[in-house]
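User: Can you help me understand a structure? I only have the sequence.
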Amino acid sequence: MTLCEVVVPYFRLEGEENMRVSTYEMFFHFPEYGKTIMFNGLSGTLDMVPISMGTALEQEAINKSKCVTINESVSQVLLKRYHLTELTEEDEISSCFELANKYEKIQKPVYDAHRFIILPTYKCNFCCPYCYERDIEDRVSTNKPEQLMTKEQVDNIFSIMERYPYIAEKSQMEIFGGEPLYKNTLPIVRYIVEKATRAGRNITVTTNGYDLNLFEDLLSPAKISAVQITVDGTEAIHNARRVSRSGGKTFHKIIDNMRLALDKGIVVRARVNVDKSNLTSYVELINYFKEIGYFEYPKFVFTYALVRTLPGQKNDLCITDSEFFDYLEENITDNTLMSYAISEENGGLLRNLLNNPVAASKTRYCGAVGSSIFFSPDNLLYNCTEVVGQPQYAIGTYDTEIHIDEKKESVWKKRHMPNIPECLRCPLVFMCSGGCAFRAMECGCADGPYCVSIKESFERRLRIEAKLYDIFTRS
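Assistant: Let's start by predicting it. Here is the structure, written out as C-alpha cells:
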C-alpha cells in the first residue's frame, strides 16, 4: 500500500486563469516530513505533495486569489485527481448533487432490503451508570412482570422479513435489548435462532456477555455468528462500570465467555465505552487481551466508542476525539498496539480510501436513516438504537404486518444526500452524510447537519494512520 506522491519539478506563485482548488479539498500538513496530504471528498482521492505546495494551495483555497501556478504536468495530475478543478464553485456543487443522487440510486436496493433487529426484552441484568436505556428498563419493569417477546410475535417478524430481499453479504438480522442473552430470554432466543437457521440467516447479537455460556449451543457461524460484548477497562474499572444487578463482579466471567465464543469459531467484538473514568486503563486493557492471546484469534476484534451525551445534557466525564487521540499518541509507541487501539479492524480509514474506490460514497449516516427496523416486545417499531423503548419515537407498530407512520418515518428517511444542502459544500459529504439523525432532531435541526466531531475525528485518525503505515518513507 502506497500513497501517490506528486513530484513537483518546480513551483512558483503567479497568476492562473482557469483552475482553482476544489471546494471539497482538505489539507493535512506534516512539517516533520516536509509533506502535505491532500484529500478530495468529492472523489475520495488522497495524494501527497511537498509541504510548500500544500500550504500555498491551502491559502489559495482560503483566499481565492488565483495567484498559484504550477508546472502544467503537475497541474494535470492534480486536475485528474480532482484536487484542482476548472469548474466554478456552483458547478462543482451541482456535480456533488448529481453524484449524491447517483450513489443513492446505486445503494437504495441495499437499504430497501432492510436490517432487522429483534428485542426479546427491555430488561437487563446489568445496571451500568452511563446506559441510555436505564430509565426505559426501570420504567417498563416497575411493578410489572417482565415483558418477553412471544413465539407468535417472532413468527410475525419472520413472516414480515420474508417479504424483503435477502442479501447474504449484509448482516440482516440482529438481536438487541435490554440484555438479549440472559437466563430469562433463553427459550425465546432459542426459538428465534432455530427459525433463522431454517431460513438460512445467521444472527449477530449485542450483549453484555455475562450469561453467554447459557447459549453455548447456539454459538456457531451458522447460528449466532457474531457477538459484540462491552469490556470497559481492566478488572477493577470494568467491575465498577459494568454493574450486575445481583451485585456480583462481572469481569472474569465475561472474559471467559468471550474465549468460549471464540473457540466456537464466531466473531467476538470487544467494545470499550471510553470516557475520563476509564481512559487511563485503555492501553492496559489492550495489553491484557494481547497477553491472554485473544488477538491471535482471527475473529477477535477490538473496538471503542466515546461516551456521548445528548444535546443540552452535560456529562463532565465525556472526552473529545482530540483528547482520546492525544492519549493514544502519548502512551503508545508500538505500531501493532496502535493498530488495535484505533480499531483498525477493516484496514483503517487511510487504507480504505486508498484501496476502495467507493469508500467515500456514503449517502446515509447509519441504518436509522437507511434500513434498520427494530421489533420491540410491545409491538412497536423503531429505527434507531438510541430511541428504542421510547414510544414517542416509534415509527409504527407490527402484528402480522408492519404499520408504518409515514409522517414519523419521513423525518428520519429524508436525511440522506443530497437532501441536506449544507452538506453539499462539505469535503466529508460522502463520509459523514449529515451526521446522527437523532442528535440533529434533539438539537432542533432535523433538516440540517449534525457534525460535532466528524472533522476532528477524521483528521486525527488520518494523521495517526499516516505515521502508522509509514507512508512518508514508502512513497
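Now, to help you interpret it: The chain has a mean pLDDT of 89. The longest helix spans residues 89-113. Let me know which part you'd like to focus on.
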